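Input (structure):
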């Protein structure tokens, strides 16, 4: 089935558009030791009847007895033709769907640097050089220490995450005595008071390390770029409490984004959310494969037109292939992606 394109174009100025969303790859605040290294937040703008017809066509093509279809159905090799059909330029969601990607390890570095220095700009060069400069083991220790510093949950001594992080910084500094990475580490080493203050007043309403909330704001920014007001219909989940939705709406307004509200539904109740669920899971898998050097170039090329240029991605080589025409990486916007 193919649409006629009448409802697949960017919104005109002054219109209210409804966009449906879902995510894949959530590990809470455990971004360096979880099950996935990529978080994907997908959105789809289609009329309900058209989306329902596409979901039914996917079911008809796959013919699985499962009561609820997920992205892994389309990712199976025997359904490769269905996956390519879904993403293809002539397919059902091309031009009317988007996915915001977050490389989790980079997100951790970006948030830690921004918190301690009040400026996220040094995060990207530090991240790009880190593994080669310090070696896999020491770089992994730094990522884990930064993750523990920022996450709200701590089962040990209250000061343990701060102590561990600054011990790690101390071990890295002799390796990078000169150059930009060394200067950034020196500035981080001098920011102990900021780290102590952060741990003393941990934010519980808006966790610094959860990528969902800034991704929702970025999604609203994407769809309102043409001047439309955007209403987001999102798969229901525990993270999106009324208080956090209010924060999302306030953050959007403060950034000049015309977000008309966020409404939660069960994915199985809205075929548009089901399509967003498919795209999020597919995009997470393709992006992770590209990040880890095991990519399928055909699928990467098919995904590229859907990727939000404002995605939070630090790895230069994979972004050169995933990013829509990007020559470099997309660093987080201080207004949209900063969690606090």
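Output (sequence):
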């Amino acid at each position: 089935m193919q649409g006629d394109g009448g409802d697949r174009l960017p919104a005109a100025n002054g219109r209210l558009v409804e966009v449906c969303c879902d995510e894949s790859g959530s590990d809470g605040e455990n971004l360096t030791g979880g099950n996935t290294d990529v978080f994907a937040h997908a959105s789809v703008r289609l009329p309900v009847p058209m989306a329902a017809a596409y979901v039914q066509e996917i079911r008809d093509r796959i013919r699985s007895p499962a009561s609820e279809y997920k992205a892994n159905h389309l990712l199976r090799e025997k359904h490769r033709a269905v996956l390519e059909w879904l993403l293809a330029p002539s397919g059902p969601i091309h031009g009317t769907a988007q996915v915001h990607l977050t490389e989790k390890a980079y997100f951790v570095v970006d948030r830690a640097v921004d918190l301690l220095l009040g400026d996220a700009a040094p995060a990207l060069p530090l991240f790009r050089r880190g593994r080669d400069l310090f070696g896999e083991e020491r770089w992994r220790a730094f990522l884990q220490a930064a993750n523990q510093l920022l996450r709200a949950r701590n089962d040990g001594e209250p000061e343990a995450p701060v102590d561990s992080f600054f011990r790690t910084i101390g071990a890295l500094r002799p390796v990078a005595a000169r150059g930009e990475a060394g200067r950034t580490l020196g500035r981080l080493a001098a920011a102990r008071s900021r780290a102590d203050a952060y741990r003393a007043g941990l934010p519980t309403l808006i966790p610094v390390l959860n990528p969902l909330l800034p991704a929702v704001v970025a999604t609203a920014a994407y769809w309102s770029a043409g001047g439309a007001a955007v209403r987001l219909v999102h798969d229901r989940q525990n993270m999106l409490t009324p208080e956090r939705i209010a924060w999302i709406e306030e953050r959007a307004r403060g950034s000049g984004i015309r977000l008309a509200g966020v409404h939660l539904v069960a994915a199985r109740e809205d075929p548009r959310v089901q399509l967003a669920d498919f795209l999020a899971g597919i995009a997470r898998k393709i992006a992770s494969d590209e990040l880890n050097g095991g990519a399928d170039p055909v699928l990467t090329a098919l995904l590229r037109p859907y990727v939000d240029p404002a995605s939070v991605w630090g790895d230069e080589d994979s972004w050169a292939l995933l990013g829509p025409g990007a020559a470099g990486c997309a660093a987080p916007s201080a207004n949209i992606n900063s969690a606090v």
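Notes: The CA atoms of residues 169 and 189 lie 6 Å apart. Confidence is low (pLDDT under 50) at residues 1-12, 326-340.
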